[in-house]
Amino acid sequence: MTAELVRGQNHPLSEVRLEIRISAGTPLIAAATLGDEHGRVRGTEGVVHPGAPVLPGLEVSRQAAAGHRLAVDLDAVPAAVHRVAVLLALPATAAGPARFGAVAAPFVAVTGVDGGELASYTITGLDAETAVIALELYRRQDAWKVRAVGQGYAGGLAELLADQALPQAQHLARTVDEAVARGLARSVASPPPRSADGGRSRLAAAPAHGPDQGDPASSQAAPGTMPTQPAAPYGSHASSPSGQPASLSPHPEGGAPQPPYPGGPGTPDPTAGPQPPAPAGSPIDYSHPRRQTAAPPPPAPTAPAAAPGRPAQPVAGDATGWSMEERLYNQVWGMFEDLARTMAAYRSAVDFADSRREKELDQVLSDPRSRLGGHGDAAREAAHARHAQLVDQARAVLDRDLAQLTAESEVVEPALPPAYAGWDNPVWHGYRVPMEIPMAVRLGDLNLPETPSLRIPMLVRLPLERGLWIDSGRPVQSDDAFTDEEELRRLAMETAVVHTARLLAAHPAGEFGVHIVDPAGSAARALDPLVRTGVLAGPPASGAAGVADVLGRLTQRVDLVQMAVRGGAPDALPPGFDTSGQLLIVNDFPHGFDDRAVTQLRYLADEGPAAGVHLMMVADREDAAAYGPLLDPLWRSLLRLTPVPDDHLADPWVGHAWTYEPPRVPPGSQVLQHVLTQVATARRDWNG
Known about the structure:
Blueprint: E1 3-5, E2 10-12, E3 17-35, E4 47-48, E5 54-55, E6 58-59, E7 65-73, E8 83-89, E9 107-112, E10 117-122, E11 131-140, E12 143-153, H1 156-163, H2 169-181, E13 236-237, E14 246-249, H3 324-366, H4 368-371, H5 373-415, E15 440-447, E16 456-461, E17 468-471, H6 485-506, E18 512-517, H7 528-533, H8 543-566, E19 581-589, H9 595-607, E20 613-619, H10 632-636, E21 639-641, E22 646-650, E23 657-661, H11 671-687
Parallel strand pairs: 1-10, 14-22, 17-20, 17-21, 18-19, 19-20
Antiparallel strand pairs: 2-12, 3-4, 3-7, 3-8, 3-9, 5-6, 6-7, 8-11, 9-10, 11-12, 13-14, 15-16, 15-23, 22-23
Helix pairs in contact: 1-2, 3-5, 6-11, 8-9
């Protein structure tokens, strides 16, 4: 259970590999000091900050941003270190708020590497302070604890460091500010201004206010969210069964913590040392990096400082994380957040320009003396001119940020590993079945109406925390292009096959099985790639008997796992019990399903993910109308995806309606056949 701390309260830490997540309403500098048992910091080498972001056991962000994730490994800090103080400061060079009292209270959470929150603290009571010691990790009798501090300093970072008995406090504070100003940090304030050298930041714009924006809970989103990141870049998405925008949230902070798979991203390897990322321009190793218990790896490759007035050159992997995979994951989600908030700032500016013009025109019309004659015409022309000027200014800022995001996308996309890459990425030509499960998989792309060419990969964390619903009904963006219901059903099943191939390709041999229920056998053609390559756990089940057999076996599997876990005896499962993940694909629901089968599906949708059984429904909700509201919980529990582009997803910050684009295999490409063949071959070898 999470401990919500108040100032001065402490709490024991049950883990030594941690993340410290910071969120605020304005960009902040994050730093930390390493002190001895008396709290003394022995020189500048005991301070980690954006200009020197790595010390043994600790890595801070290289950016001034509204959101930070600091990596901490308490086993790797030097034995002489007894206290780790986490510091926050307002950038001295930013044109933002001048004191903490003018912004929302910063929130700090200490989590495990799997996203599970251990303790949190909201730093309240600040006023004129510009720097604060947020919290402190300290060693007591060979155990570590966290204490909420909240000590603020009106004199800024220099006064804070001086209070830590650092004689070089003034010089070090200037060094930190210069590092941020030079663009060594990748973030700037929001609305998105640029630093002197044009370096881009992770944006923290306040959401545009409107009937469908602001609080994501009040948007047209369906209840529930999937796990996420911000930096989870994607883990949490909620779908709307009614076709209205559903919440799409990017990190485990937005949902329940995700337990790591055995040997997965959350599992440390005690034999592995730091794995530095590949330098820019060198071949990228796409194998899953081993986790470590030593110090965090060196910072991600950073582009050379840009010439004054020009944006910094983007670099793949330029984000925080313990491995290149995690850095790319965080970078993709950061790009998603940037685009969401940049577009929110632009739309807010346009709305303001529109309302101002309307107000000025109303004032002109309300005065009888200005309705007629040249004076009225001049006032109207002036109102329209001011409106055009404001819109042009907003568009110029938007174009600048879109150009930077596009440049970053062009660098990041080719560097993505197979689990994150599009089907047209050359990395698939060298695909081999992985040895470990990746952090996430790509289930499509996202874009906004103003920028259809800028697509952000939609990454969803593994293991899946909710099932998938491939909607074979008419999309929200329906037009004459897709009027044939049979065509939509065919596209939906083909999309399900592509998603299945992606999930199979992301798992090691023998760790993921696929079952298919096709009561009428109508999906035989679309399922041919899976059947022909032999990657299925068994032939597609058809007829009432086949449906009952598959549902009964998977339901029994979930029951056994639940009983073992609840009884505290996970090793007591029957001999030969298959502990690998399982995916059940259900085609053309609810045709061919009786009440018992429907009840079993609802049970698998609710309880299956925790037991390693995942559901993929290929169905049109309207076809299930005869069941009335009985099936509404089923639809709401699934992440709705579409076989054609559709704007049914919403971000959790400003409520944009994002257009989801399903994954597409390039016409004539044999990449799907190649991947499935590799999976089938690895499975046969694994089975001996």
